[in-house]
Specification:
Strands 1, 2, 3, 4, 5 and 6 form a six-stranded antiparallel β-sheet that branches. A six-stranded antiparallel β-sheet has the order 9-8-7-12-11-10, with helices on both faces. Strands 14-16-17-19-18 form a five-stranded mixed β-sheet. It is built from 21 helices and 24 strands. About 4% of the residues have low confidence. It folds into four domains: 135 residues, PAS domain (Beta-Lactamase, 2-Layer Sandwich); 170 residues, 2-Layer Sandwich (Beta-Lactamase), CATH 3.30.450.40; 152 residues, Heat Shock Protein 90, CATH 3.30.565.10; 142 residues, Response regulator (Rossmann fold, 3-Layer(aba) Sandwich). The protein is α+β, with helices and mostly antiparallel strands and 699 residues long. It is elongated and about 140 Å long. It is 43% helix and 21% strand.
Length: 699
């Protein structure tokens, strides 16, 4: 120190001023930390700023080695650097292009810049280290803050990818928000399905009345209700000055002063919010807002992924159930065919004709078997594999009946109008499925008119399909159109309207199967469908269904069931193909009692061989040895009934084809692909139903 004092005394100062006191005052008052270090690395002098920065009391640093100020991880490297620097000391700034940290007395670290100034040129064996805390620089603070935010966002991103448990993500989001923003309170609130309240899904630092699981009313005068009404982030600078909504007293009692809330959105619909609160006034700015929005987006993405996975799993379960019920229905319908067929034969046996008790037992068994068939139909309806039953439908009567029902059930603000002439011809379609299709469209129209409007039904004979309708179908059609005055559809929505599971409705209000089901029904009915819509201009959905040409035929299936068996030509030659022996026996009995000549086969290969042999024996050439082929579609491991029918009709073009199956999807596939001249017969069937199917085919 004597050498340092002599050097300082040699400097020229104004007269009357003592050099030593001036330089001592400079050393003490300097705002940056100053350390005077000898060649061995021992601290000779330290100013108060150094003690404050490094967490030591005054005088504690003198005598320590500078190595105690170096983090443990880089201490060996630092010792080697200090040794090399001692051999060739020179002025050098450090930390301007690299991150330097100093270790405090308590073990914490501070980011610094260091400037080394050797005093050897002045004859002193010391180095002055000037240390500056750069963590307080605004740009550095901002960079550190952004880095911290990025780390927390990455943490949530990894969690969202690694876990399939949404509850884990919901639990961690408030913790990450609170840690990232260094605030006291953070919560996730989810809007209940009824929209009347928010549920506190997760949180940290929750105040009284907002514990996890608690409900908060969704009103514009409540903090979360106000955020929902705005539909955008809301910053509260100071609850004590807030006038936009009522501040709950317990917020102020808990010392909360400022807050930030961002909506949680799912495909454009607000489903909740992420909220943070602080005990500091005006705590939240743009950086905090961006961070919380990023957290909200990550959480929303996790929610959407979980919902998508659940929807996919649900669809897969439905498909599995559909396949299972279809398979069950196939076997069950074969059993019912045997049961019903034999019961019908028993009912007509002369030995039982006069036995009232026996007739009562048979009738009870027949009723039970019919209920079994109805149960199978319900299973198939659930799995969307129901076989259509086309019939003549009076469109005018159907629309008026549907309108009466809708007037009683729809919002009274929706006006229903009908425009259909008395001369509008009937259509050929399944009446139950047609009514269901129109109802589906009407419900969509209602949802597009939440404030009311007009729902207009129209039916008219349009002849051939309009050129604008892209459909490969011919004939005369009746156009059934449903027009609403609702919100309409954008082009991209209109293009996807018939896609299964595509919906623009909020969660829980639509499956995306309504219009796709309508589309399938219309196509299966050999018709076409079209949509006209523009945003804000409403929507028109038009069904083009085949016009029924024979106006004299208007008997319903129920009326047909009450009629006697349809008359068939005597001696009709039938090739019966059925792999189930019991079912084959029932079919054979029915055909014989209908006056047919029957040859039965267990598979398609056997049937084709018999038909060829019969043709050669009778020298028929291209003429069919049989008038009718009655075949099950599923024929065990060999040729399917559809293939058999195709090959048989190629050999004998005039052969009539009637296919049957208890597996509804087979009937649907066959109905879609088969020639129009073929007929289908669902199992189980009665003798009367078999007779009518043959009569329709031959007629």
């Amino acid at each position: 120190m004597a050498d340092a004092a002599r050097h300082l005394a040699a400097l020229s100062l104004p007269s009357g001023i003592e050099e030593g006191s001036v330089f001592r005052s400079l050393f003490i008052a300097y705002p940056d930390a100053l350390l005077l270090v000898d060649r061995a690395g021992a601290i000779v002098l330290a100013n108060p700023s150094a003690a404050a920065l490094l967490g030591y009391d005054a005088g504690e640093l003198a005598g320590l080695n500078v190595d105690v100020l170096v983090p443990d991880s880089i201490r060996p490297r630092h010792a080697a650097y200090r040794e090399a620097y001692g051999r060739a000391p020179r002025p050098r700034p450090m930390g301007t292009d690299m991150e330097l940290v100093a270790k405090r007395k308590d073990g914490s670290e501070v980011m610094v810049e260091i400037a080394l100034s050797p005093l050897q040129d002045q004859g002193l064996p010391f180095v002055v280290a000037a240390i500056r805390d750069i963590g307080a620089y605004p740009r550095v603070k901002q960079a550190l803050q952004r880095a911290r935010y990025s780390d927390h966002l990455a943490q949530l991103g990894r969690l969202a990818v690694d876990t399939r448990d949404l509850n884990v993500v919901l639990e961690q989001v408030p913790r990450i928000a609170a840690a990232g923003l260094q605030v006291e309170v953070a919560m996730v609130l989810l809007l209940e399905d009824n929209g009347l309240a928010f549920r506190v899904a997760s949180g940290v630092g929750n105040v009284a009345g907002e514990e996890i699981g608690a409900h908060i009313a969704n009103r514009p005068d409540t903090p979360p209700g106000y955020v929902l009404s705005q539909g955008r982030p809301v910053v509260i600078a100071d609850y004590r000055e807030e006038r936009r909504f009522a501040v709950p007293p317990h917020y102020l009692d808990a010392g909360l002063v400022s807050a930030l809330a961002v909506p949680l959105s799912d495909r454009g619909r607000v489903i909740g919010m992420l909220s943070v609160r602080s005990r500091e006034a005006r705590r939240f700015g743009d950086e905090e807002l961006r961070f919380l929005e990023s957290l909200s987006n990550l959480l929303a993405t996790s929610l959407q992924r979980v919902q998508t996975e659940e929807a996919l799993a649900h669809a897969q379960r439905l498909e599995s159930v559909g396949q299972l019920t279809g398979g069950i229905a196939h076997d069950f319908n074969n059993l019912l065919t045997v049961i019903q067929g034999n019961l019908q034969v028993l009912e007509e046996l002369p030995a039982l004709a006069q036995d009232a008790h026996a007739q009562q037992l048979v009738a009870a068994a027949l009723r039970a078997s019919r209920r079994g068939a109805e149960l199978t139909g319900k299973l198939l309806a659930f799995s969307r594999r129901q076989m259509l039953q086309p019939d003549v439908v009076d469109t005018r009567a159907l629309l008026h009946s549907l309108a009466d029902m809708l007037r009683r059930t729809l919002d009274q603000r929706i006006h229903i109008a009908i425009d259909t002439g008395a001369d509008c011809p009937p259509v050929l379609a399944d009446p139950v499925q047609l009514e269901s299709a129109l109802l589906n469209i009407a419900i969509n129209a209602r949802d597009a008119m939440p404030e009311g409007g007009t729902l207009h039904f129209r039916a008219e004979d349009c002849g051939a399909l309009p050129a604008a309708v892209q459909a490969q179908t011919q004939g005369s059609f009746v156009a059934l159109s449903i027009t609403d005055t609702g919100s309409g559809m954008a082009d991209d929505v209109k293009e996807r309207a018939f896609e299964p599971f595509f919906t623009t409705k909020e969660a829980g209000r639509g499956t995306g199967l309504g219009l796709s089901t309508v589309y399938g029904f219309v196509k299966q009915s050999k018709g076409a469908i079209a949509i006209e819509s523009q945003p804000g201009a409403g929507t028109t959905v038009t069904l083009y269904l085949p016009r029924f040409e024979d106006s004299g035929h208007a008997a319903s299936p129920a009326a047909e069931d009450e009629r006697a068996d349809a008359p068939l030509p005597r001696g009709l030659r039938v090739m019966l193909v059925e792999d189930d022996a019991e079912v084959r026996k029932v079919g054979h009995t029915f055909l014989v009692t209908l006056g047919c000549t029957v040859e039965a086969a267990a598979n398609g290969e056997q049937a084709l061989a018999s038909m060829r042999a019969e043709a050669q024996a009778q020298d028929h050439g291209a003429s069919a040895p049989f008038d009718l082929l009655l075949s099950d579609i599923a024929l065990g491991a060999g040729m399917r009934g559809t293939q058999l029918a195709t090959e048989a009709q190629q050999l004998f073009p005039r052969l009539a084809i009637l296919l049957m199956s208890g597996f509804s999807s087979e009937l649907l596939d066959a109905d879609r692909d088969m020639p129009a001249s073929w007929e289908l017969l669902p199992k189980p069937y009665t003798r009367a139903e078999l007779a009518r199917a043959i009569a329709r085919l031959l007629g």
